[in-house]
Model the fold of this input.
Amino acid sequence: MGRKTAFLYHDDFLKYQFGENHPFQPIREKMTLDTLQSLGVFDEDNVVMTPRQVDLDILMTVHSEGYIEQVEELSKLGGLLDRGDTPASPGLYEGALMAVGATADAARGVARGEFDHAFNSAGGLHHAFPDRAAGFCVFNDIAVAVRILQKEFGIGRIAVIDTDAHHGDGTQSIFYYEDVLTISLHRYGRAFFPGSGDSNEIGEMEGSGYNINIPLPHGVDDDLFLRAYNSIVIPALQAYLPDIIIHQFGVDGHYTDPLTDMKLTTRGYAELVNRTHELAHELCGGKYLVLGGGGYDLDATRRAWSIMYCIISGISVDDPQLRELHDQKTPSPDEAAIPIVLDVIEEVKQQSLSNLEKLRHHA
Ligand SMILES: [Zn+2]
Ligand SMILES: [Zn+2]
Done:
């Protein structure tokens, strides 16, 4: 069997939108597809796959029937799905069913070994809770993928890595009492959405120790982000020994993103995916499902996602082809962030060290 990488795309992704002045613009997904096509990346191993809408039965393993009906109704009538930033509009329901369906198809394809890796740029909707929308997220496709892997394939050890600039609060809440490993690196603070994600939120009962938060200050750059990643995420994955890695690859920590005040560049994102991709081959036979997420500078998002897809499809991280996609500038580092991040790394290490031991015993 070849080393295949799937790219999921459907024009219904464009229906998942909240109006022309809203920061979330699904056109970035089409822009990524167009960029990869113009680079000539797709061939017999790297394929574009057309997804189907998610089955309601599967969606109901995560969301309540009442909430699903409410989304369907409101998307016909108009109205707000949450307290303000996630308005319903015609087509949103269909768009959401397709965004989740693409993650579901991608998860099944990876689980069956039809391809090693898959990317659904319309997925990664990590703020959605079982009975409510939040932060531009209607249905939590990450949680749906986990339920499919558990129920249809009997996969027990599932790791969810979330490197969006915002805390993966919906995902955390859904698996808080279960031994699914959920790790989120994010900007943290009371005034920054969603406000949760402190390092002491480690999971409870069966889930105790399986939720790891790495709360970061604003201004974190590639170097600091990767330092946190190497110190915590890599040892956690090596201890947990997942059967599959799901990666929420929101890129709104990019330095030009209008919402987050972080300082990552496309080079940091390339290194991040390069390491995770290698770990997937090392630990779980390459089973690696990548999902989208935040990304509000559309051009930076298009470039970061295209570079990421090239890397998981086997193009070397230093390939000259990628040069024109990378940022041409580097932001100046924010010195004030350095000591804060070093403290956070120590704190999270201490908090999760005994837990890491527990994860190791469990394996
Ligand atoms: Zn985000
Ligand atoms: Zn690979």
In short: The pocket of zinc ion (ligand 2) is lined by residues 3, 116-117, 277, 281, 286, 312 (CB under 6 Å).
